[in-house]
Amino acid sequence: MTHFSHRVEQVSISGIREVFEAAGEDAINLGLGQPDFPTPDHAREAAVEAIQAGKVDAYTSNKGTLELREAIAEKHARDNDLDVDPEDVIATSGGSEALHIALEAHVDAGEEVIFPDPGFVSYEALTHLAGGTPKPVGLRDDLTLAPETVEEAITDETAAFVVNSPANPTGAVQSPEDMAEFARIADEHDVLCISDEVYEHQVFEGEHRSPAEFDETGNVVVVNACSKAYSMTGWRLGWVTGSNDRIERMLRVHQYAQACASAPAQFAAEAALSGPQDPVAEMREAFEERRNLLLEGFEEMGLECPTPKGAFYAMPKVPDGWVDEVIDRGVVVVPGDAFGENGAGYARISYATDTETLKEAIDIMAEATAALD
Fold this sequence. Notes:
Layout: H1 6-9, H2 15-22, E1 28-29, H3 41-52, H4 66-80, E2 89-92, H5 94-106, E3 112-116, H6 121-129, E4 133-137, H7 147-153, E5 158-164, H8 176-189, E6 192-196, E7 220-225, E8 238-241, H9 244-257, H10 263-274, H11 278-301, E9 313-314, H12 322-328, E10 331-332, E11 334-335, E12 347-350, H13 355-372
Parallel strand pairs: 1-10, 3-4, 3-5, 5-6, 6-7
Antiparallel strand pairs: 2-8, 7-8, 9-12, 11-12
Helix pairs in contact: 3-10, 4-10, 5-6, 5-9, 11-13
């Protein structure tokens, strides 16, 4: 048998998937990172109309339809006070592909990519696949990423660093001051800042600000998607925006890896972004209520948990054996070390499930906690 590439041998199946496979069929799933709401009707209808009208039978532009890119530009003006040229946007197959092409276009073999630990599992894996060297860095006690930690980690071999706010798996939200500092660091050290803003609309405390707002030299690239804001994980529609020269290089990767994002999904995303935003607010309010319920449960259990200010995850500190005990009792949670070495001693809990199910899961987690005392 022929050998496999060194890059792929450095990547394993996600620890999150291993937890799912180990759980029983009737388990309550608090490990899934997707909203439990339907995609807004107007987004679905836009895709159906485009299909029936024969508008999705052919490739779109590699970057995506102009109408979608205009909707993305208008979204950034509305939500982020950013002036984005539609020509500087690439519609991608989800936020995952956007991250992938950003790293492929900017990282040479052996170059370092700095990212938070614990952090989203794709950062390390995609760095390996780009031939780079992962460089995870620890977080503050509140699970936010300190700009000074990033700056201290930068060397002559650093190509990029990743900022994720609101964050998966921690639910942490970076302050505007932090975001301004990340932009300064990218500018002064001439390294790329990749800002993963997929959860930007799930903010309960504080405010979401993008490092792109403070960027003066074109060293910030923004990755986003419809997945979490509009409950469109299955549609696989994301995007990346940045300076024109960076977009042109990322397009070279995208056009050979993907050609273009799914045409029906592009029409759905255009409608989601430009249509009524009420569903976004409704989901955010529901997630905040669930977060509060979960935090109350942790407090009663005696588990310490930094308050998640966004996304729909909580990351409590848990005793040895807690994750296995909870899973054995029928609730799927993810061990913190699935997200990096510094995640050891924590568990990631997704509260993207209905309130009654969440209450049932909290009762089971309380029983598991008591059993370990």
